[in-house]
Design brief:
The structure holds two protein chains of two kinds. Chain A is mostly beta strands. Chain A has no helices and eleven strands. In chain A, the strands form two sheets. In chain A, strands 2, 4, 5, 6, 9, 10 and 11 form a seven-stranded mixed beta sheet that branches. The model of chain B has no long low-confidence stretch (mean pLDDT 92). Classes of the chains: A mainly beta, B mainly beta. The interface between A and B is medium-sized, with 25 and 20 residues.
């Protein structure tokens, strides 16, 4: 398996622009997680899905952030409009929820810079 | 409240010496504990886990962790450090309230000096 795939790896955009981050989880995994990592706040869970359904989006910072999972092999995280404080590394992770120990497998991340 | 603490922001060890990265936890129910490593400009990689059974858990790259229920700790250890072990290490525990989320520590930067 290729592991969790994220694209793009790097994104530089101007304030006010729409940004879409993409994730392909490991085939067969039924949980998908979106995280954000910054020096100031560390690793934060933004939202997670189970069988394509959003379960907990309490970590999404504002209405400017939205996430979808239209099918088991694809998810997007969208920021509209983007702001400089959104600059961070965004990780997608997936896990198999039916069996212990529920370890999560991370993608390489998308480094977002908003100028 | 459930939580994970990594009391050291940074740990410095000389190459060849043993290393320990500390983690303590507070959970309701049986703890499922994890260690992950993050190399520069990479995603987090799973190292090892404790679910039940033997208190000494062996993982990838020669790392091991000792589960201590009375001290509610799960310290990461390695007998002989390598320069290539330099990375950011995260401890995590399963969140029993949400069932499938992990509660993450703040991370410890491990620096191995030649």
């Amino acid at each position: 398996d290729a592991g969790v795939i994220q694209s793009p790896r790097h994104e530089v955009t101007e304030m006010g622009q729409e940004v879409t981050l993409r994730c392909k989880p490991i085939s067969g995994h039924d949980y998908l997680f979106w995280y954000r990592q910054t020096m100031m706040r560390g690793l934060e869970l933004l939202i997670y899905f189970n069988n394509n359904v959003p379960i907990d989006d309490s970590g999404m910072p504002e209405d400017r952030f939205s996430a979808k999972m239209p099918n088991a092999s694809f998810s997007t995280l969208k920021i509209q409009p983007s702001e400089p404080r959104d600059s961070a590394v965004y990780f997608c992770a997936s896990s198999l929820g039916r069996e212990l120990p529920y370890e999560q497998y991370f993608g390489p991340g998308t480094r977002l810079t908003v100028t | 409240a459930q939580s994970v603490a990594q009391p050291e922001d940074q740990v410095n060890v000389a190459e060849g010496n043993p290393l320990t990265v500390k983690c303590t936890y507070s959970v309701s129910g049986n703890p499922y504990l994890f260690w992950y490593v993050q190399y520069p400009n990479r995603g987090l990689q799973f190292l090892l886990k404790y679910i039940t059974g033997d208190n000494l858990v062996k993982g990838s790259y020669g790392f091991e962790a000792e589960f201590n229920k009375s001290q509610t700790s799960f310290h990461l250890k390695k007998p002989s450090a390598l320069v290539s072990d330099s990375a950011l290490y995260f401890c995590a525990v399963r969140d029993w309230k949400s069932n499938y989320q992990l509660i993450w520590g703040a991370g410890t930067k491990l620096i191995i000096k030649p």
